[in-house]
Amino acid sequence: MAEEENSGVPVASLVFTFLGVFSAVYCFLAAANRSMRRKNRKKKPLPSPPSIASLPFIGSLLFMRCGGRFHRFFANRAKILGPIFTCYLGSKKALVLNDRKTIEEALIKKSFYFSDRHIHYTLDKYYNQNHKGVVYRQNDENFSKDHRQVMEILKEMGMGRSLMEERIQYEVEELLVHLEEQKGRAFNPQPLVTRCTLSVVVNVLFGKRVEQNSPSINELADNVFEFLHMDKQPIHFCPPLRFVPYYRRTIEDGFRYQEGVFRFIRDSIRSSLEPGASESFVERYVRREGPDYDREDLRHICRDLIEAGTDTSSVTILWCLMELANSGRIQGRLRDQIDSAIPSDRMPCLRDVPSIPYAEAILLETWRWRAPLPLSVPHKTNGDTELRGYHIPGGIMFGHDHYEPMGGKEGFAPPTFSFLPEKVVTIKMRSSLVCIVFPHSNNRFTNPGIQTRYGHGYIFRTQPNLSKLQPNPTHASNWVT
């Protein structure tokens, strides 16, 4: 009997000990929970970015009197509201980023939250309803697959190396012939430059060369230009405008322009897949995908590469032509460096880059001085986040303004909006410049658009005959002699 009583004492002790420990832990957790709630009540939520005044349905457009130069308006407004603010474009709220530090923090350090793609209303509803291609579609798994495949094919073909260089040199030689045919007369270089850059892209995509003055390349250039520059922005910000006769005709014109582009692409794809055809992007794509490849997706990919690789490249070259024509000092220094570094019996090439730093400085300064897109292509946040002390909601459209960072005090001293290639002389400057113009890329050779612009720009600017260009004061500024 005594043994049974003694054996029960430890059990009761363990029970009381367990209850004591449990009570202590419970009291500690309850106190910690109360303390956390008290701190959360005292913590103030992050403020929203300041906003430009707006009206229902119209948004902030009536308060943005800038003659269509929104990049300059945003740069001036940033001096009052700060580097981050919002506005309403019609019924859509948009976030604007204005200085280099803010752009780098958003698109590099917090790229996960600022990496989604904002799709234009007219493109999504009318011109790309099935969400094909690599530009006009959401950032989903299929987009990542297509984008990765496009980059792999272009890298396999030598993008940024011999592939682009040989094709660009051939087209530049023909372009120089057309320039010499002008014989000192005033002319508008825009059609010649556009057809030259377009011929390079067509050669890479379809493995065939089209003469720059052929009817097919002229028609394609016109359709691409008209589709990219048609007045579709108001429909995006105010969709009911699509029922207005003017904008209804604009949408119908867009269908006609796009059908012209697709007609050229269909014919070119057919010839690219014939036996004995030259190596091309299309041939490698079909080889990877097999005979059951998505034909619509391939057509849209080709369209996206044509539009992205032609317009920005030609714009960059045209701005540089204008500045070279207006600055004999820059022309002379460039010509002296080319003559001293490159033999006269061959054309300049990309391996000459280290020996001609001034040519590369002119290219980078052109990107800074006249960015191909003063305002970036709109993107969208994919989740709530914080930026420079402000709460940024998920799903908001945003864009960054290149105008002030590229021409003001951000990395360039003294602040200047003039064309000064001499300032682009250090690696720090070049890295800062690439970050501002192409913030979604780690360097200038990470996407095909940058590679095309760099190859076009460098080889085009180092041609000796370009030093003969002079401004024509009796004509518009985009005409040269």
Can you describe what's shown?
- The chain has 17 helices and 7 strands.
- The protein has helices spanning 2-42, 70-81, 100-109, 121-127, 141-156, 162-181, 190-206, 215-229, 233-237, 245-272, 281-289, 295-326, 328-341, 357-369, 403-407, 427-437, 448-461; strands spanning 84-89, 92-97, 116-117, 379-380, 385-387, 390-392, 397-400.
- Helix 7 (190-206) packs antiparallel against helix 12 and helix 12 (295-326) packs across helix 14 (357-369).
- It is globular, with a radius of gyration of 29 Å.
- Mean pLDDT is 77; it is low at 1-9, 409-416, 425-462 and 472-481.
- What kind of assembly state do the chains in view correspond to? single chain
Characterize the largest beta sheet: strand count, sense, and whether it forms a barrel: 5 strands, mixed
Classify the helix fraction into a percent range.
55-70%
Query: Number of helical runs?
Result: 17
SSE arrangement, N to C: HHEEHEHHHHHHHHHHHEEEEHHH
Low-confidence parts lasting 5 or more residues at pLDDT below 50? 1-9, 409-416, 425-462, 472-481
Strand content: 5-15%
